[in-house]
Amino acid sequence: MRHIKRELKIGNTAIGGNNPVLVQSMLNVRSSDIEGNVKQAVELEKAGCQIVRVSVPTLEDVKLVEAIKNEISIPLVADIHFDYKVALACADAGIDKIRINPGNIGDDEKVKAVVKACSAKNIPIRIGVNAGSLEKNILAKYGKPTPEALCESAMYHIGLLERYDFNDIAVSIKSSNVNNMIQAYTLLDSKCNYPLHLGVTEAGTYRMGVIKSAMGIGSLLLNGIGDTIRVSLTDAPVREIEAGFDILRAAGHEVAGPEIISCPTCGRTRLDVAAIANQVEAGLKGINKNIKVAVMGCVVNGPGEAREADIGIACGADNAAMFKKGVKIKTYSGNFIEEFIEDIKICAEEL
Ligand code: SF4
Predict the structure, then answer these.
(1) Which residues of the chain have pLDDT under 50?
(2) What is the pTM of this model?
(3) Domains of the chain from N-terminus onward
């Protein structure tokens, strides 16, 4: 069951509470390239990204905020390290959320100034603890970035904001070690009521990055933990979005769009089921209904194994049986893929 956390407003959307788990990503265009950043943010929004983060390293880069916000409607988060003046400038420029660790920005007066600016404009702050940048004293105490060390660091940063009665907080506690990451979030979840942003950091290139993220983020989601997610990949950010939604879907969350169920094929298979499944998947792009579509390799086991599907096919030697919820409706012959896609669209309308 979902662990319900404090609700947080981020621009025109909300996280925590009973709100859906949102998928976010981060721009990776050079900060000086305003046009490139805007273009990538627009692409991400089109791909379904629900929150987007941008690095704002210096005061000079704050102009990214207005430029990007003018072209997108999803919330924009500024990623800031060390310089509290950048945080103040981003708040002035209309940012929706700030990611900053209050322990890294200097004395109390600087923390107080950031809290004041964010409170005045209802801007939440995400504390982003990372195994690679733990406080020296915490690292010395635990010897390495253990889940307890990560959690202690998060609680330290949370405390710095709570001191000034600031509670519009989200927290992430990322590690590149999947097991540590799961344990750290589980521990933090038991200690605080703030929404948690999940991610495995430095997860790697596409294939391993998706596997590690699916394990780490997926395990936590299955245990009811998590309010936003990011699949960090050394790849195009737009690929993080599709992977994020696939992880959410696999963890049983409602995700708009078709889910393809297909069998691994075996000696009974006669048609090229992999090609058929890929064509069906491509033909359904843009459909927003939450529909389960099965593409199975044989009529012996196909309809039974895909009984949960709303609609499916079980392929024969040169034809295919179409079934709905495990009940055969008709038989296709010849080149049937277009007809099947049309039937799926009709079925989706009826859902
Ligand atoms: S559905 Fe049929 S073809 Fe596919 S794996 Fe099962 S038995 Fe083999």
Answers:
(1) none
(2) 0.92
(3) 8-250 (3.20.20.20), 259-350 (3.30.413.10)
